[in-house]
TrEMBL record:
Catalytic reactions of this protein: 3,3',5'-triiodo-L-thyronine(out) = 3,3',5'-triiodo-L-thyronine(in); L-thyroxine(out) = L-thyroxine(in); L-thyroxine sulfate(out) = L-thyroxine sulfate(in)
DNA-binding recorded as keyword: no
PANTHER family (UniProt xref): ORGANIC ANION TRANSPORTER, SOLUTE CARRIER ORGANIC ANION TRANSPORTER FAMILY MEMBER 1C1
Protein name in UniProt: Solute carrier organic anion transporter family member
Hydrolase listed as a keyword: no
InterPro entries tied to this protein: Kazal_dom (IPR002350), Kazal_dom_sf (IPR036058), MFS_dom (IPR020846), MFS_trans_sf (IPR036259), OATP (IPR004156)
Principal cellular location given in the protein's record: membrane
Length: 711
């Protein structure tokens, strides 16, 4: 925050020992004007950067909320969706090193503005397939061909179906095959997300370093904290937007909604996933406009000009050469900058604290990225919730918990003036207790729904034989049914049947969502009178205990998100204070690069592959081939999803312990005593130049760097 004139007068009266003559008073006045000018410019940049963080967080979280929608719309498996999600990180990989290193010496605001335009172009590209593909086709048996002809779900004889109806059905299949190439348009979604990654690249390393370079020391932490707080609002709106769009049918505005025979609770439902990307793209364009009018450099305050490395920071930095003290504002050629690239890289990787913390972060982000990417799918499949409700819950409950956790971590660091060693302890404790809480989620799952031929037999016993062969039974042996269909109905016995044909239904009444099937021979096996056996459209609800388990899951999930987020700020302080000041932007760029390459890209892919192994029933494409998964094994999904997350988190904790051990080895009790004394002396009456080194620890404690929301 800007310092008032009264506070400035009080500060100078305390720190000035010699009598104040006219020249010194004039000097103070010019310094005050310089500070006001700097504060005005940095606050404009702060507002613009906050809006950009909001825009990129909104589009990123909206992508997470549409994972299942994209999977169903393009009829692709989870592993391929993971590749699409990881393409964002590939975009970062392409230019992150060059942007973070060379961009720090060029016009940083305009580079961020260019990034916003690229990011918006990628967001618009993601939505484009909706306007070039055919209308969404879902698997559904039409009980009414026209107003006069009614077809039994159980086609005991092909002659039962009018020839014209069969020809029309075959023509529709052939037309669908011709449009099958449209399903490959998921490539445009991948390319659009890759462009988003390229455009987002300069925002974090250049934006945070710009604020840290030109903000007043005591305000730097507050400013970056404001950026981070505003950034948290982005995912909230992103998931809420995803919740709203998931309720709208994918082809809204293009088809008659009364003709749609499925609801948003159906496993085949696809919401208007494309609509949110158009909104996010417009926001990204607006966010980039202010940066074209901001200056390359801002005037530095007097304290910034005299600043140097803190005493605590110097314990973890080996000063190789005095030549590295060159000003960043100096105009240099690209060739000269490139010449210093390899020595700078060698300097970073020669720092054991930096390397160990980097390894811990990579493994932890593998855990968190995989968990967050498939969290909506997990909630939908495990607890039987709709996509709309799932996104609403994540946006309104989980994300605020993350925001509060980050705020709490920064507040603890500021209030208790925790040192770098203390920050390492706090980060380690946060991870340990967070993953310990995650362990309890294994006991908060739901059993598999009773699906005839998949999880239970047609006689009601638990399924133990091959799923494909078990789909057929004596009760539906007289029907001409396909095992590839997925058109679930719920029998009055509480069992879900894959289709009305496999349920042996002989008659139906009504149309669309209100269709009721009668005389279902397979439903009648478990009923006293088979003649009255009926079923309705859609799968049966999960068990009675599942809603209660879902509530328990939400409570533990919120507490876990908060606990893991508390350690985010201390961890970043540890990262930035163990490196040389002039390598700050470069270190952040390398850190981000490593997270993108070794966590952001592979984690969604191998998490998706692991989740695909738990699928019980795959959908079928119109021209053959495997489509998206329709039903998962709840127990297997729980153990794979949570188990993989927990194993990776445990490994990251071991690396965090190694970081703490190295810091303890380098920091003796005598050094800690001196550090404490320096903090007390910082409030004394020494000159500002002498106080800077001693008070730097307080500045470090309140520094709040950028950390993406991952929960």
């Amino acid at each position: 925050m800007e310092i008032s004139s009264k506070e400035n007068t009080h500060f100078f009266s305390n720190t000035t020992i010699l009598p104040v003559d006219r020249s010194s008073f004039k000097s103070e006045s010019s310094a005050s004007k310089e500070k006001q000018s700097c504060c005005g410019g940095i606050k404009i940049f702060l507002g613009a950067l906050s809006f950009v963080y909001f825009a990129k967080a909104l589009s990123g979280s909206y992508l997470k909320s549409t994972i299942t929608q994209i999977e169903r719309r393009f009829d692709i498996p989870s592993s391929l969706v993971g590749v699409i999600d990881g393409s964002f990180e590939i975009g970062n990989l392409l230019i992150i090193v060059f942007v973070s290193y060379f961009g720090a010496k060029l016009h940083r605001p305009r580079i961020i503005g260019i990034g916003c335009l690229i990011m918006s172009a990628g967001t618009f590209l993601i939505a484009m397939p909706q306007f070039f593909m055919g209308r969404y086709q879902y698997e559904r048996f039409s009980s009414i061909i026209n107003s006069t002809v009614s077809i039994s779900p159980c086609l005991q004889d092909k002659s039962q179906t009018p020839l014209s109806a069969l020809e029309k059905s075959q023509a529709n299949v052939n037309a669908g095959c011709e449009k099958e190439a449209g399903s490959s348009m998921w490539i445009y979604v991948l390319l659009g997300n890759l462009l988003r990654g390229i455009g987002e690249t300069p925002i974090q390393p250049l934006g945070i370093a710009y604020i840290d370079d030109y903000a007043i020391e005591e305000n730097a932490a507050l400013y970056i904290g404001c950026v981070q707080t505003v950034a948290i609002i982005g995912p909230i709106f992103g998931f809420l937007l995803g919740s709203l769009c998931a309720k709208l049918y994918v082809d809204i505005g293009f088809v008659d909604l009364d003709s749609i025979t499925i609801t948003h609770k159906d496993a085949q439902w696809v919401g208007a996933w494309w609509l949110g990307y158009l909104i996010a793209g417009v926001i990204s364009v607006l966010a980039g406009i202010p940066f074209w009018f901001l200056p390359k450099n801002l005037p530095k305050t007097h304290s910034r000009k005299d600043s140097s490395t803190s005493s605590e920071q110097s314990k973890f930095i080996t000063d190789d050469s005095k030549d590295q003290h060159k000003s960043y504002q100096q105009q240099v050629k690209i060739a000269e900058m490139a010449k210093d690239f390899l020595p700078s890289l060698k300097n970073l990787f020669g720092n054991p604290v930096y390397i160990l913390y980097l390894c811990a972060s990579i493994i932890q982000f593998n855990s968190l990225i995989g968990m967050v990417t498939y969290k909506p799918k997990y909630i939908e499949q495990q607890y039987g919730q709709t996509s709309s409700k799932t996104n609403f819950v994540i946006g309104l409950i989980n994300i605020p918990a993350v925001a509060f956790g980050i705020f709490s971590g920064g507040l603890i660091m500021k209030k208790f003036r925790i040192s770098v060693l203390g920050a390492a302890k706090l980060s380690l404790g946060s991870s340990f207790f967070g993953y310990l809480l995650l362990l309890s989620l294994f006991a908060m799952g739901c059993e598999n729904s009773d699906v005839a031929g998949l999880t239970v037999s047609y006689h009601g016993t638990k399924q133990t034989i091959d799923y494909e062969q078990a789909l057929f039974s004596e009760c539906n042996s007289g029907c001409l049914c396909s095992k590839n269909d997925w058109d679930p109905i719920c029998g009055e016995n509480g069992v879900t049947y894959i289709s009305a044909c496999l349920a042996g239904c002989q008659a139906s009444n009504g149309s669309g969502k209100n269709t009721v099937y009668f005389n279902c021979s397979c439903v009648g096996i478990l009923e006293s009178t088979s003649q009255s056996s009926s079923a309705v459209v859609g799968p049966c609800q999960k068990g009675k205990e599942c809603p209660k388990m879902f509530q328990y899951f939400l409570v533990i999930s919120v507490i876990t998100s908060y606990t893991l987020s508390v350690g985010g700020t201390p961890g970043y302080i540890l990262l930035l204070r163990c490196i040389k000041p002039h390598l700050k932007s470069f270190a952040l760029g390398i850190y981000t690069l490593a997270i993108r390459v070794l966590a952001g890209i592979p984690a969604p892919v191998y998490f998706g592959v692991a989740i695909d192994t738990t699928c019980l029933k795959w959908g079928s494409k119109r021209c053959g081939g495997r489509g998206a998964c329709r039903l998962y094994d709840s127990s297997a999904l729980r153990y794979v999803y949570l188990g993989l997350t927990l194993v990776l988190g445990t490994v990251s904790i071991f690396f965090s312990v190694a970081v703490l051990w190295v810091l303890r080895k380098r920091s003796s009790p005598h050094d800690e005593t001196l550090s404490t004394n320096r903090e007390r002396d910082a409030c004394g009456t020494k000159s500002r130049k002498d106080n800077f080194v001693n008070s730097d620890l307080l500045i470090q404690s309140t520094y709040w760097p950028e950390k993406e929301t991952r929960l």
